[in-house]
Amino acid sequence: MNSFVRLQLASIVGSLVDFSSTWLWVTVFDAWYVGATIVGNILGGTILFILCRNWVFKKFSGAIPFQAAKFVLVFAGSIILTTLGIYLLTHFLRLPYMVSKIICSVVLGLSYNYILQAKYVFV
User: Any idea where the domains of the chain sit in the sequence?
Assistant: First the structure.
């Protein structure tokens, strides 16, 4: 199984954590969907980093702090793009926030996230 397929599977796991925590914050704690999106992204991103390092790219020898710093840099960009996309789709197109989140997650997962993780973070 190549790294692209493994990353997509790892992203599904990270997204499940992300989406469920976003839903929990909005539904149970009555949080604003943008703030809940950020919390969900951070939790899902933490799981994704662990899976990427240990299973997707199998980069055990690299220094964890250095890889984590590069991952956080890329992931911060992803959070900004995801949050902005969700806000624009939800606010202006009136899509439900979860539909907006799915659209943004798929688009960024297949493009931005894979390219930068494979070519920058886990080289």
Answer: 3-121
